[in-house]
Amino acid sequence: MKKYIILGLLSIGLYSCDSWLDVKSDQEVYEESMFEESRGYYTALNGLYILMSEGTLYGTNLSYGAMEAWSRSYDLDNGNLTTFTDLANLRYRNSGPTDLGKAIWLRCYKVIAEANNLIQNLEADKDVIFKYGDVTRNMVLGEAYAIRSLMHFEIVRIFTKAPVIDQGGVTATVPYVTEFPSHVNPPVPTKDILEFVIKELEAARELVKPFDLDDKYPGSISYQDRNVDRRLKLEVAGEITVNHANEEFFRYRADRLGYYPITQLLARVCLYAGDKDKAYEYANEIVEMVNTQTVYDFTAPGFIGNPEIAASTVHPRLHEEIIFGVYNSKLSDLTEYYFGKNVTTNRLRIKDPNDLFDNPNDVRLKAIVDRMPTKFSLAGSNEADMKRASTTVPVMRIPEAYYIAAECIFDKDKAKALEIFHKALEKRLNQVYNLPENVDKERFMDALVEEYRREFLCEGQLIYLYKRLNIPMRISGGVFVHDGKLVMPVPDTESGIE
């Protein structure tokens, strides 16, 4: 097993080529040995998650870093984070944003290339034996498809015009890549890429479904142990042992791109593409699952607050709600640069939390200390007591499903929309914002946007909300009009990977 781990790490760290998309996997050198057995596919799949967890993607840029700075959530007036300042002011051609865009672009396509390599090998290999046979084979294949789709979607959201200002996405800006190696890839209209991504995610969801939902297979064990009510009862009883699958690779399925995360990702993509009916269908499936506490649930209000005061009883990342997150064992080193207690010049501070959270009873306000978000600031806390706070980056959390479902059903069933929306407010002790039964669409959307701002602070999602709806960014004391310019330029196609 050590040999496969070493080969996997080599494939992540060493690569080069002469063209931006002619991405050759270093696994190609080792394919004869790496893909001989099922564990080689496991190593390759784990490698995709490792790539996504790096600072270039979700480890920093696609979460609390560049994407959040782009949405102007931070006070960047200190002038020490010029790349973020230029990005927030839409100065994309300055060197910082240019290099940033290139890094994100290349890393996304690197993950896509590695996913394509895994998919092609697995689809062609009919002899490799997996425990549980085709059920496990399909699970691995489904996850690889989902990862490939997620990376294409991130590229679309960052580097193309929003469908709302592009006739649904008619402009061809970025490629959609499904072959390895890939040499010629012309840009594809955004609407076509979104259609491909949705179809692929729907297929991926069916591929992973038996492994994750059927009690005969290990995926269901992880989801059973993800049940918040069960875990809290174990903690109260002084029992912290949970059941796991015997095989290490099959553990912690609930944190990977399994059935439920793919379902919520489908809701996110369908909404961005403008298909509200499908978006509601997928989002409401998550809402109904959460309402019955089958697996996930909202973090209890008493577990949201300041870890400097009560480290052992606070869950800064709201880990019960993370439906998909990435693991990075060095994450605290990355966050320390921006949020560390010994950092003064590079701190990322929220502009005006009291303006955003004008309800003092909102429990999320208690999780912001000195304009610092405790989601990623570990100052004054005991990391061991903060559960997953030191290693996990939330990519999707369940409140988003409630917001998507409420938005998508509002025009057809206002009462249902308000029921879903108010349920989320209740979980944050924020009922002061409950809307009247006769609320109009404009007032509802205004309240929804404000909830996105409060809920996903420092998670990199606000910029896509402003872009999808083509509305000005909301900042303390006013708005910032972007005129539809929330599109990072596609990097020079002649630039090589370095």
UniProtKB/TrEMBL annotation:
User: Which stretches make up the SusD-like N-terminal domain?
Assistant: 20-204
Q: Which residues form the RagB/SusD domain?
A: 353-463
Tell me where it resides.
Cell outer membrane
Say yes or no: keyword Zinc present: no
Q: Which InterPro entries match?
A: SusD-like_N, SusD_RagB_dom, TPR-like_helical_dom_sf
Record PROSITE patterns: PROKAR_LIPOPROTEIN (PS51257)
Enumerate the UniProt keywords alphabetically. Answer: Cell outer membrane, Membrane, Signal
Query: Which superkingdom, per the lineage?
Result: Bacteria
* Predominant localisation class: membrane
Q: Which Pfam families match?
A: SusD-like_3, SusD_RagB
Q: Which residues cross the membrane?
A: none
What family is this?
Answer: Belongs to the SusD family.
Protein's recorded name: RagB/SusD family nutrient uptake outer membrane protein
| Species of provenance | Butyricimonas hominis
